[in-house]
């Protein structure tokens, strides 16, 4: 039982699945980690110390029951491990691949703190669920009761929207998901590149939802094709899970030159190519890094995805300019290491000052050297310019990856009564997750601001519960009225 199979961290070292060598992976969009073999997954799971207070679970936004599914894996009870893992997550194989585990579960693993190296939780999670798909243990989505008299509309097919859709469909509601893209998945499909998350993984989840009776309406943009009020009139409740898409811009001379492009346009084009779509802006070279000197500005996940995409497209050189240092960047340290292995050069403590415009095309970035000064209001040390530290970097493609803010939803949706916070995110009641408009709920990045997939899944799970409470009360009230 447990103790016999567990606590092996003293004698068994930490081993992540093998990474494909940089020279082999730097020209394709396939995931970079090879899969564990069964024996390795069991061995690595057996390193768990089965703590009384499982900090891994506490620091997982989904509170996944990590110690128990690690123990089941170590004991060779893989199907049970899967069932436990999917009890709290709608897409464990996605989290296993792209959660920043070094900051969440693994970063808080007790044996990491004691210097033994964390249990490789994300890799085991991925292994369990990939095996479940192979073995046919992933059950079809089936409504557990019939509430088809009530329908729910969900705006946004990202992880928050589809998670809520799954839980609400399971409760028996008629569920319609509306998305302005031609495929679901949100940023899982069109933001995050295949080398972190192969597209098939996302498409397989969406197919299961469709087979379970969820109706997807693609190429449908709320605000363009219908106002919020019109959509509200069609459903008993609505969920807004539209994410955040207003790209922050750089204010510097020359920023309007050709070849200075927003990160998401670039990533969407590349992801579309991975699906085999025709993308004129890629084919004509404007969103293609092949043969170019590429400079990416920013230090978050989006910047990391851009630099590594540019490598794979065959860029002549790829540099990343970030105004803070390595220790103070928001992106994952693992991703920086992967990018460096693939040949990306990081120019820490540097910020663009101007872009050289050569006959309408960018030719270089004039940058300033920075240092970290005193902490600002957010508690982070603020970057300051070092006078006289200017330098120039050659560039014929500059990708702006400075983060995202919410779009102006009240204006876009024709819904002035939809209240937003001073950051432009939707204001919701903390308990019910309902917005200022009756029956309209919100979840994911549009409430939190740019965040993580695992938080979007958590919000989708929570909002499905509060929407059910609202809908059940409404159904109860109609039944009472009809009986009176
Ligand atoms: P989204 O995933 O943004 O989905 C929103 C959906 O709403 C989209 O499909 C959009 O088309 C649709 N929509 C928007 N407006 C409308 C409208 N008016 N009408 C109809 N549909 C609309 N997180 C991680 O945990 N790990 C990572 O490695 C990671 N990498 C990232 C890389 C990039 C490049 C980016 C940009 C983000 C990354 N993130 C990562 C963050 C993560 O992707 C988001 O936090 C998460 O996807 C948010 O989920 P969501 O469902 O709230 O929104």
TrEMBL record:
The protein's matches in Gene3D superfamilies, at most eight in alphabetical order, are given as: Alpha-helical ferredoxin (1.10.1060.10), FAD/NAD(P)-binding domain (3.50.50.60), NAD(P)-binding Rossmann-like Domain (3.40.50.720)
Q: EC number(s) of the enzyme?
A: 1.4.1.13, 1.4.1.14
Looking up InterPro entries in the UniProt record yields: DPD_II, FAD/NAD-bd_sf, FAD/NAD-binding_dom, GltD-like, Helical_ferredxn
Q: A Gene Ontology molecular-function term?
A: 4 iron, 4 sulfur cluster binding
Domain Dihydroprymidine dehydrogenase stretches: 27-136
Alphabetical UniProt keywords: 4Fe-4S, Iron, Iron-sulfur, Metal-binding, Oxidoreductase
Primary enzyme class: oxidoreductase
Q: Where are the transmembrane segments?
A: none
The FAD/NAD(P)-binding domain covers 152-460
Keyword flag Phosphoprotein:
no
Q: Which PANTHER family match?
A: GLUTAMATE SYNTHASE [NADPH] SMALL CHAIN (PTHR42783), GLUTAMATE SYNTHASE [NADPH] SMALL CHAIN-RELATED (PTHR42783:SF3)
Question: What protein am I looking at?
Answer: Glutamate synthase (NADPH/NADH) small chain
């Amino acid at each position: 039982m447990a103790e016999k199979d567990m606590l092996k961290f003293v004698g068994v070292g930490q081993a992540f699945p093998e990474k494909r060598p940089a020279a082999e992976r730097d020209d394709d969009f396939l995931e970079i980690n090879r899969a564990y073999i069964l024996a390795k997954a069991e061995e690595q799971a057996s390193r768990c110390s089965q703590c009384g207070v499982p900090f891994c679970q506490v620091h997982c936004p989904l509170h996944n029951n990590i110690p128990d599914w690690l123990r089941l894996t170590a004991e060779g009870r893989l199907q049970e491990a899967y069932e436990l893992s999917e009890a709290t997550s709608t897409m464990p194989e996605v989290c296993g691949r792209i959660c920043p585990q070094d900051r969440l579960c693994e970063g808080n693993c007790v044996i990491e703190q004691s210097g033994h190296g964390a249990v490789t939780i994300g890799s085991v999670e991925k292994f369990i669920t990939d095996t479940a798909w192979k073995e046919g243990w992933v059950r079809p989505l089936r409504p557990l009761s019939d509430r088809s008299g009530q329908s729910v509309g969900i705006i946004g097919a990202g992880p928050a929207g589809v998670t809520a859709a799954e839980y609400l469909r399971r409760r028996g509601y008629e569920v319609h998901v509306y998305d302005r893209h031609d495929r679901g998945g949100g940023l899982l499909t069109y933001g995050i590149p295949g080398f972190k998350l192969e597209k098939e993984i996302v498409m397989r989840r969406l197919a299961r939802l469709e087979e379970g009776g969820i109706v997807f309406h693609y190429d449908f943009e709320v605000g363009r094709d219908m106002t919020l009020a019109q959509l509200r009139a069609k459903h008993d409740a609505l969920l807004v899970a539209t994410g955040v898409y207003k790209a922050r811009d750089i204010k510097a001379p020359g920023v309007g030159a050709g070849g200075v492009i927003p990160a998401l346009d670039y990533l969407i084009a590349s992801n579309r190519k991975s699906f085999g779509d025709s993308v004129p802006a890629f084919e004509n070279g404007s969103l293609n890094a092949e043969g170019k000197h590429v400079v990416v500005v920013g230090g978050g996940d989006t910047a990391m995805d851009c630099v590594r995409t540019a490598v794979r497209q065959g860029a002549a050189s790829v540099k990343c300019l970030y105004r803070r240092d390595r220790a103070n960047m928001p992106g994952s340290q693992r991703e920086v290491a992967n990018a460096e292995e693939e040949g990306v050069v990081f120019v820490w403590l540097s910020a663009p000052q101007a872009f050289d415009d050569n006959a309408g095309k960018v030719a270089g970035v004039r940058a300033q050297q920075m240092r970290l000064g005193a902490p600002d209001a957010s508690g982070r040390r603020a970057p300051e310019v070092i006078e006289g530290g200017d330098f120039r970097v050659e560039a014929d493609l500059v990708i702006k990856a400075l983060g995202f803010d919410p779009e102006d939803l009240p204006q876009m949706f024709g819904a002035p009564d939809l209240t937003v916070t001073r950051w432009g995110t939707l204001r919701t009641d903390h308990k019910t997750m309902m917005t200022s408009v009756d029956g309209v709920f919100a979840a994911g990045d549009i409430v939190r601001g740019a965040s993580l997939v695992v938080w979007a899944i958590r919000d989708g799970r929570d909002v499905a519960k509060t929407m059910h409470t609202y809908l059940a009360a409404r159904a109860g009230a109609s039944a009472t009225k009809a009986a009176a």
